[in-house]
Each structure stands twice: as C-alpha cells, then as structure tokens.
Amino acid sequence: MSIPRIVGICLVRNEEKFVASAVNNAAGFCDQILLCDHRSSDRTPQILNKLAADLPHVSMHRLGHPRESHYLIKGFAGTPTWILGIDGDEIYDPTGLQRLRKRILAGEFDKNWVIFGNVLNVTRFIPASMEVAGHLSPPCRSMTKLYNFSAIDSWDGDCLERLHGGHPVFRRGYGATDRRYLHEETPWDEADFRCLHLCFLPRSTAIDVSTRRNIMETYGRRRVNAIISRLAELFSPGRSSRWKDEKYRRGPEVTVDLRPFFPDANAPI
Hints:
alpha/beta
C-alpha cells in the first residue's frame, strides 16, 4: 500500500493576528499546505505570501469565493491522502500532531472516514501564568477537520467551502458513519489531536467584533439565506455569531497550559 500523504488546506479571510501560528504549528504535520485567502482587507495576504515563500511545501492561492477552496482538494479523492482543514483561529499542538502523524502513517485510522479531536474554545488569554481559559470539547462540539480521502471516489456537489456540503461518494467498505471521536476517548492533557480555537477573540484590525460569523452563516445553504446574510454584512458588519455562542460556550470555563502550543514562547498575546 502507498504511504499516505497529509495535505492541509487553510481557508481564511482577515485573520492577520493568529494565522501565522496556525500554519506554522501544522507545517510539520503536513506534507503539503494550500493557503487560500478569500478577499482579506487586512495584512493576511502578506502574511500568507511570506509563509509560502519561507516554507517549501506551502503554496498561496487567492479566491473569489470560498467554494473554490474545495476545487483545490476534490482531486485527492480516491488517493492515499488525509486532508486537514486549518482555520486562521485554530492553533494545534505541534508535538501532539507529530504523534498523530505517526499513528496515521502506521495505519491506525485506515478504516475511518473522518477524525475529530479535542478543542478548547478560547475566551481569554492569561499572560501572567501562560494559560488560556475557555470551554472544552466535550461538552462543546468538536470542529477539527481531518478527512481520509482514500475512503471516497469523489466529492462533488454544492460545497460552499472545503470539506463542507456536497456529496461524497464512498468506496466499498466505507460510509459517513465511519468516524473517530478522539475527543471523547482521550482527555485534553493526554490528547495528540488538540487545538486552541480562538473563535471568541479579535483576530483582525479589519473587523470590530470578536465572535465572527462563519462561512456557512454568511453564505447560507440557500440563495435567499445568502442574500440576507450579505445584506446583513453590508449594513451591520460588526454583528456577532449567535451560532458560535450556542455551540462553543457549553460547560464550565476551564484554564489550560498555553506553552505546548507555543514552544518557542512567542505566543501572540
């Protein structure tokens, strides 16, 4: 059998504060990273261009619509490829990812279609003690995205962004329920696949709101929803995401050690 490759795809818009850390922390895990900027108006494109220049396995792409990000990865269907979705507000544990990579290459997850990891939905930094506070998954939902493209023959249809929507066609022996919920198996402190989800923090000077709407909220699954969302974006650009508050503020607020995520002690606080 062929040795699997791990391809990261980073789709961002106005993520200047944390996107470099998001990409750098995943760089050692991935064999290739596709950086996709969707009409950023802050310094995000310059940051992505520098990352692409500094890292030989990273490339930069400018997109007119988020759905174009799915076009970049759909061709991996049916090949021994794992696809990691990287957002500009997702900081993964780089050492944990190295352990996860060994498990993937050893075949532990060959029968799985998608893997979900541990998440801390960060509400605030605590610089004095190098900690962050937030809400863990579980009880929050996990939003990590690691897909086994060897499990499908194709992934077409209406995908508003990479790894969302459309109709994956599964190969024999696989199905949509072949999921591995690592966040339900392993506690945060022992997890290999874990990330800081900075969804409640300001991430750009271009947007004056912390809890920003995601792509599905902005564009919607139907044309009328897309029109309403775009009008709302024009007339109330600072509107927060009620959906994120409902999904990512569950359970008690806890504090965790920040240092494993920034081993060089350069946390962007």
